[in-house]
Amino acid sequence: MCVACIRTRVDVSENIPKQVVLHFCRFCERYLQPPSTWIACALESRELLALCLKKLKGLNKVRLVDASFIWTEPHSKRIKVNVTIQGEAFGTILQQQFVVEYTVHYQMCEVCCKQKGSDGEAWKALVQIRQRTRHKKTLFYLEQIILKHNMHKDAMNIKEMEGGINFYYNAKNNARKMVDFLLAVIPCQYKTSQELVSHDIQSNVFNYKYTFFVEITRICKDEVVCLPQSVSRYLNHMSQVAVCTRISDNIHLMDPITLKIGQLNAGQYFRDQFDAICHQKQLREFMVMNIEPVYNQDKQFGSYSHKHQLADVWVLPINSLGTDDQEIHTRTHLGNILQCGDYVLGFDVAHAVVNNATFEKLNQSQLPDIILVKKIYPEKVKRNKGRNFRLKHLRNNSTPRLSLTMGITMTS
Description:
Elements: H1 3-9, E1 19-25, E2 30-33, E3 37-39, H2 46-54, E4 63-70, E5 78-89, E6 92-106, H3 110-117, E7 125-130, H4 137-149, E8 157-161, E9 164-169, H5 172-185, E10 188-200, E11 205-216, E12 224-226, H6 229-234, E13 241-247, E14 251-254, E15 260-264, H7 266-271, E16 276-278, E17 284-293, E18 303-304, E19 311-317, E20 328-332, E21 343-348, H8 357-360, E22 370-376, H9 379-384
Parallel strand pairs: 1-6, 7-11
Antiparallel strand pairs: 1-2, 2-3, 4-5, 5-6, 7-9, 8-9, 10-11, 12-13, 12-16, 13-14, 14-15, 15-18, 17-19, 17-21, 19-20, 21-22
């Protein structure tokens, strides 16, 4: 027979099904890859195309030439793939093109079944993140770090709790991975505990629930702290009153009067813990009346900041403008960004009531009247110059949006 007659009488795709069923979990948006693996695939992606071709029985008996998607409505629950194959018949290689239609059926995966069926209580491991402070600025920063590295992907549930957030996992290894990540990016310590759920006496199998309690440092950025004397000695006799300039895997501190800097890791901080004597909401607003940079500074042993400029500053409180109040002199580390007429936030040491045992032991005559912390901008400038981006937020698997205390949306 000629090739045309063979083509009309022989169908090389007769052993390949033209209609196949795909199972899809609409809660976690994953497809079932038999026998028990669930994978996440986007529509018309390479991963989804590979999954569709694996579902075709008899495809291994012919040669696959090409495969591509045919566009369908996303809500139609249909996926169409255009397949081109080659097969041998009567000593002749025939090429044939046909369309396979996949029907998407909803089926809950094991993780979602446990979570939905028991109201999220079927977890095996729990990570509790807590920060015992008024303003959880470090938690805001930690949320963005978790989203950046996609460390919440293995969590079966996320819940907001008082003072922090809980991550629920179906395996202890996933929770341990999260704890190791937290120890690497932020100063914290953790404790572990386990609870016996069930015990099979015959097979001697124990079923436990594991809990990891992670405590984050109570110090946040732009807070004034009072260091214990032992910590001050460790930091090359830095002044006991310092400003926290940054929180990373270490706590970055700086003396605003001398520009001496130091760092504390998690172990050093939790060995001699200390609290902030002035939080961000307790800072007062001042206006810069005059400023003179200081270039001839006597530097002793220790590390000093090269990103800041020491300067003598004369300021007035905002509520004292237009009065006969005398200007207040202080020394600050913000000499490279401050000019006359700028607004700054500072800690009014002279009029503050501080409930701190370490601070009360200090010689008050050697402390400055004001400690300037950061520069601010008028409300009008803030309104006119908005940010053109939106911060991402942690999402819960069971709800469309997790309303976290730390989830602050910033828009233009």
